[in-house]
Amino acid sequence: MLTSGKAPSLTPPAPSPVAVARPPRRWWFTLVVVALLAQMAIVMITTAVRQSPTIDEPVYVGAAIVQLQQHSLRYNPEHPPLGKLIMAAGLAFADVRLDPAFAGDQTQLGRHVLYESGNDPARLLLLARLPMIVLTLLFGLVVLGFASDVAGRAGGLAALAVYAFSPDVIAHGSLATLDVPAAGFLLTSVWLLWRARSRPGLYLPLAGLALGAALATKMSTLAVVPVLLVLAALAGLRARLFWFVMAAVAVVWMSYLVVDPQLRWESPADLPDVEGMRWLPFPEPFRDGMRVQFGLEERVWGGFLFGTHYLGSRWYYLPAALLVKTPLGALALWLAGAVALVSVRRLRPAALYVLLPTAVLLAAAMTGNRDLGVRYAIFVPMFLAVAVAGVVAVRRRWVHVAVAVLVVFAAVSSLRTFPYYLPYSNEAFGGPAETHQRLHDSNVDWGQDLGRLADRLRQRYPGERIWLVYKGSGVPSYYGIDAADPREVPPDQVRGLLVVSDSAIAKADDRLKALVSGSTRIDEVGHSITIFRRP
Fold it and tell me: Long-range contact list for 116-119, CB < 8 A, 24+ apart?
């Protein structure tokens, strides 16, 4: 039974042995933290080295290089520049060749930079991915600090362990993409806002800067701004809210000015007219980027869930995908942690800071029109890792034993999927080998295994005729794959090896379905590409 203590206070309670489990000795605490982050760093770097470019990465890398070399904002306006500036911090160590006269779109730019300019795509990708890996590890320290504030150092370790073994955080934190940085900056802002209740002069401006970093990385984080303003007001910080907001707005402006101090900008053609946009206190490129995002939301996208391909979106897609792609131990700890935060009186103030932003962001993401992966809800495993600390604060020995068992269960499940974190699914849904039966796109197959496919074909199938349907941004010929598209010739001419990305199978038209059904499955690569033999 959950117990309650003192009434909630506007100031954070000092850590006490009465409120939390007995804290570990300091050197043990430090050793465990280092071990958890070290294993996370190892698996993320290994994953980053072995993976080919995913679908979005070439666009971001190309835009980052244009920002770095030409100080231009013209590419990828639908996302603010901060995330790409962070990638540029790594790319600055490469002598990147880019034709100054290049004039293609952002997809063509990414291909041009990686494959057509004499650059080494693997090296460029790794240099762009490494800053994101460092950020992901730093956000682990934010989880640790936030959870320790809530439930002491033992709670902080439990939260960090759940975070460090999250397959989704590892998968997307090791890529040069924007989802984990945006969610991590937002989590940092919420944690600093929590601390600002006792020291507003120090932490409230810092919380504003972190919120600004989130907004300057992905515009979707705007959805939680009203929640943060309400939390600050309830904590008695209304008189200082102006500086919190100004700090956030200043970071957004600075992210654009760092790229181009003159803010040279030409609005893209055919932007949707969104009422009220001109009143937002952000640069014109930011407001136009929001209009691009609204235009993307007006498109009809295809989804795939539990074996069914559909057009449009389903409101329950993200909760269902999280159910599939989260370790069972972590799911149990998330639920128990949320219950503890709400039920234990001394923890209820933390519930507002941990659970309310998560719920609002998830509700906003569920209204979106793009059922393309749990990366749109990557904030869930990051915020709910903090909630896990609430379970440790329950003063029952059997609870602490149960937490340890569930953490180990989640860790084993995560380690078993190494190095294939993108297609992870938990044991209840068959593991990573079966994820393609239930989900698609960045949940399973985001183009990451093209290099592995090339190695497999060379080692096991040398000299065979290859027919390829690949979903990704890589260039097969660069990796030595000499293949043709089976959809461009009569079916009776397709003989030899038929190689198909699992996302293409999930969304196959009648022609591709007939080709697959008339073939024999003989191999798979990375749980994302299937190899068939055609008679």
Answer: 119/94
